[in-house]
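call fold(seq) -> tokens
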Amino acid sequence: MELIESVKTAILENAMLRGGETAVCALSGGADSTALLLALKEISGEIGFELKACHLNHGLRGKESDRDESFCAKLCESLGVELYTRKINVREHTQKHESLEETARKLRYRFFEEAMERFGENSLIATAHNANDSAETVLLNLVRGTGLKGLCGIPPVRDRIIRPLIYVKRNEIEEFLKERNRPFVTDSTNFSEDYTRNKIRLKLLPEILEINPSAIEAFSRMSKILRGDSDYLEELAENALAGAKRQNGYDALELFKLEEPIKSRAVRKILINGGVEPSELRIKTALSLLSKRSARYNPCKNKFFTIRKGICFIENIEQKFGGFNEKHG
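ret:
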């Protein structure tokens, strides 16, 4: 399927754009985001949305990073697309025990919020994640030991983030740019095997494609099916939380009686809503306390999963204990 048609299909099937919105293309200057910008420009009049772009210079590759920013500015100028840019030094923002990749991702999504605020409440961020990226994500989650959600790949839509290239394979992107004689920039770190995702992209996925040349399509089909199952379980968990809701939190015993797949998702939502990153250990520890009338678990600084008189909630208090604290009554 031709790239433009694949983009239209993704937008239509997932209700990404209905007309009247502002689509803000997250532009790096690489092949994927360059193709996305060109495709959105081509169909913007037909669907009826306004097109803008944003570029974050991470400052990690010196002159190469500045080159990318300059390329994006010239590309947008040639297309008549307004570009919002910001330069930031990721290394200066990296916290202890946090990788550069994690910091860059966190800052990137913070920048997206800033861009949407700049372009108005009806704006959405369009990222250039494609079918290969989604397959790589599945493989990455698989080798780390994932649950159902990790096998769902990259969702086409998440909150105000849309991914119009999600049905498009990387070779189709390259062909699209070649046909239109459009240049793009290449991030030199894409070829470094210091990053786990790059090892999957450069080594593992090519081996899988030798076994099954249609593996990307197979991953996409699997992820779509599993996403439906995952969404259904998430809905059941939301309903369970609504039923267990009390004035100061949730009835812990009601949650304890739930089936395991629903119970774990319900606790995960409690942790997230309380500002706690829901690792497997944190979810399992919180689950182990649900049958108690009184308990307290300290998953991270100043945040406690607390059960008081059978009601569980996330408590924000000054930390007086170590990294893990539990008490029963």
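The mean pLDDT is 91.
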